[in-house]
Every structure is written in C-alpha cells, then in structure tokens.
Amino acid sequence: MRVLLAFSLLAAEALVTVDGKPFFFENLTENRSVVVLWNSWVPQDPQFVALIREVERRFGAAGFAGAVVIFQEPEVERAAATLGPGPWPRVVDRRGVLLRKLGASRAPVVLVLAPGGEVQTTAGPDPASVRKLMETLARP
Predict the structure, then answer these.
(1) Is the full-model pTM beyond 0.85?
(2) What structural domains and CATH numbers belong to the chain?
(3) In the prediction, which pLDDT does 13 show?
(4) Phi-psi category of residue 32: left, alpha or beta, with phi > 0 → left and psi -120 to 50 → alpha
(5) Which of 92, 84, 93, 82 is nearest to 20 (CA)?
(6) What residues have CB less than 8 Å from 81, skipping those under 6 apart?
C-alpha cells in the first residue's frame, strides 16, 4: 500500500525530459530499472559524469531501462549540456520529488529498482562503488 501511495504521489508531479517531453516514472517500475540522481552543484568526483555514460551503456546492454534525473538544478540547460545526450532520458525534477520518494540520502547516486519500483540497491557518490555495482549486476 505504501508503494502505491508513493507512486500515486509521483504521478501527480509532472516530470518532463530536458527537451520538454512528458516523463512517466511508472514506466520504469514495470521491470528492473536504473535511476541515476544527479545535479551539477553537489560536490562530486569529476569522474562521475563520464561514469553515467558507462552506467547507461552497461545496464542498457544488460536489459535494464533507465533514466538520468537532474534534480533541484537551477540551471537545467547547462547541467544537461554537461551530461550530454544519452540513450536514457534526462529527466528534470526541479523540486527533488524522486530523490525524496526513492529515499536517496546522498547524491550523485545510482539506484537499481526492482519490478514495482522498490529500491533494490544503491551505489555512489564514490565512482568505485558504481563500478562494483556494474560488475555485479550489469551483465548482458
């Protein structure tokens, strides 16, 4: 019931991609998926942005759907340019709704979601923890 309530609240929050298309978080909860929570102002290892591309590539090849969520970012266009294009949508979450709903306590972070949307495991902000997660779960 709690999970349904959380996702009902998410549905009420309008999320869009950086190019203005609607984004429906519920679509990620149908199967195992990956959510990367990122913004430009959180102190982070400079390697993390490059690592996001590797996360997309490796988890995508292993059959995971995913999204890169740019949260609470005052300069979305600049942040999106820093990330560059990728196979997963760049989602704008101006108020950090997904950050809170997914229970993330640190950022940047990679979250692996089980079907149904429950967070299965997390890695980050340390790039080494993200690489270890990819070695463990992102196998084609």
Answers:
(1) yes
(2) 2-137 (3.40.30.10)
(3) 65
(4) beta
(5) 92
(6) none
